[in-house]
Amino acid sequence: MKKYFLYYLKKCILPFIILTVFAIIVYVVPIEVHNYSGWNNPETLPEGYPDYLANRVNLFYAEFLVEAVLMAVITPVYVFNYKMNKRSADMFYSLPLSRTKIFAVHFLTGLLGIYAAATVAYWLGFAAIAARVRRLRLIYYLYAYLALPVPIFTCYSIAAFLYTRANTVADGVVGVLGGFLAGIALMYAIDDISSVFSFFYSFNLISFTPFGIMQALAPLFEAAYLKNGIALWSFAGGVYPGPALNNILILSGGILYTLLAAAATAYMFLTEKNCRAENCEQITESLFCYKTYIPFYLIIICAIATIDSAAFVCITVLAAVVATIAWRRTFKIGVKYAVLLCVYIAVALILACVFSMF
Amino acid sequence: MIEIKNLGKSFGEKQVLSGAELRVENGSVFGLIGINGAGKSTLLRLIAGVLKPDCGEILIDGEPVYENENVKKKIFFLQDDPYYTTNLTAKAQAEFYKNFYDFDNEVFFSYADKFKLNVSKPLKNFSKGMKRQTFISLALACKPEYMLLDEAFDGLDPLARLEFKRGIIELAEKGTTFLIASHSLRELEDISDSFALLDNKTVKAYGNLQGELAKLSKYQLVFEDDKLREDMPFECLHFEKTGRVIRLVAKGDPQTIRACIENMKPLVMDEIPMDFEDMFIYEVGERGYLK
After folding, report:
1. Alpha carbon of B65: minimum distance to chain A alpha carbons (Å)
2. Which of A255, A266, A246 is nearest to A198 (CA)?
3. Does the predicted TM-score (pTM) go above 0.90?
4. B149 and B256 part of one domain
5. pLDDT (tens digit, 9 = 90+) per residue, B261-274?
6. Residues A53 and A93 sit within 8 Å (Cβ to Cβ)
7. With an 8 Å Cβ cutoff, are A90 and B99 in contact?
8. CATH number of the domain bearing residue B271
9. pLDDT, tens digit (0-9, with 9 covering 90-100), for B107-144
10. Chain A to chain B Cβ contacts (< 8 Å)
11. CB count, 10 Å around CB of A11?
């Protein structure tokens, strides 16, 4: 296993270099092109920016989030490609290495690849910020970096789990995207219907994604670093209750997703030995793909669209039909799926009508 | 030794193998034959540990094969369409196999030389036959105890086939067991000592090739009076009548069959040699395939 791990790691160097270049472009370039003129002078901080946040440490977490998410989606497609192709599955599964060990090698290599790419991009970003901004607490970056494995593991494991439930690359990508956005879609729909989250300081959809915990890390580490400072107090809600609730919401979502990621990883490792080679390239029947996503998104999107936006509802229904055709890989989807689709559309339209009354 | 007991495998609702029994002795060159879709590739994939049997067991040297690294170290499975990544060269593919097998560089380069392969060129630029030759070189260099070859001769030119057959015989003499699924029955006949016929989801017949061939007799006969299949006092696998000329394939003791025919006093009696392909055609053809 060690021999193959080293071989595979070496083989992945070029893809990881490409991934690193991508990470640098997404993270460091925006830092370089940003206008910092106001940030070095406390008198000219952006309007409405609380004073305690003058010590704010990382201005570019959003960019880093985008980068981490994209890497977490792209990397499983590459490292688990062997499971999606009949020819490669036949070759790999006939090798004198158990399925679990092959999976472990590819899983760890992918994780290391993302971490390496993120590390390079992160410290280059740090250097760029340090060279331009005087007022930031630069030591914070070390703490945040040490915490980086948690969000990376969370994003990657969940993406790997969703991707490997599918039988083809395309279905796998649908599985990952659908899964990553499911939390946002659900919470957005709930909020749209009930305004349940309106009391939060700023309702942040990011908190309902596998990478949401990264949002909590910035204020949390800032608070931890400043210890006796106002930031810890503010994080706990001493200054503004709004942001504190928001932080707690984000942190809870992040912890939930991290636990899910740990469970998903354990499940993947425990069940890999029974992975069925005959499923490669077959129609994906997993619950983490079209089977669930079509009714879920159809109903969610129609529910949050009012009946007045008939065009929006029509586009959603049409998308569901196209998705069903893509899933079954034929225009002749059969009576069973045609009936199911009609039922989903009917439920979605009824809900759209009901919610449009309020 | 490979032992297959009551093996069953289905893909969804489609049963591919059911109650298959087989025994492959060490050092034999075993031909696996059957019509398209008979389950030859599935059987090889099961023996290679790629697929998990639904029922029954596959034992190699007394141990189950599925997810058993020690047993799989003894096996090399060469698929009909082997996998390679884009831009991968034969040399790089050899590096890959070195992670898993006791790879013999000398054997690999000697076969690559014989086949005149450029091992530094990407495999994607090779013709189908050249790819096959590359993977055969790799397979032989891995020196497994059990070699599973799916459509082994597919795409090979006559000279490459000859070289490959020599390689197989050479390794078989050293104790390697070959299990070869192929439709090239003439090639199989040259090198196989045993065979199995897959039909109707199971192993219909298996055993020593020459022994099984000896059980079949093929005759061209002409009788004075009109003779029908029912008039033959032995099992006829095939009976064809054109005018007064009868061509038949009989199953049973050749001496007894010959004596029976002689008793019927034919005007003309020619015994035609049987080969593996004839045997396959008559065994499977009589079951109604392509009728």
Report:
1. 10
2. A246
3. no
4. no
5. 988 888 999 998 88
6. no
7. no
8. 3.30.70
9. 999 989 988 889 999 998 888 888 888 998 999 899 89
10. 58
11. 15
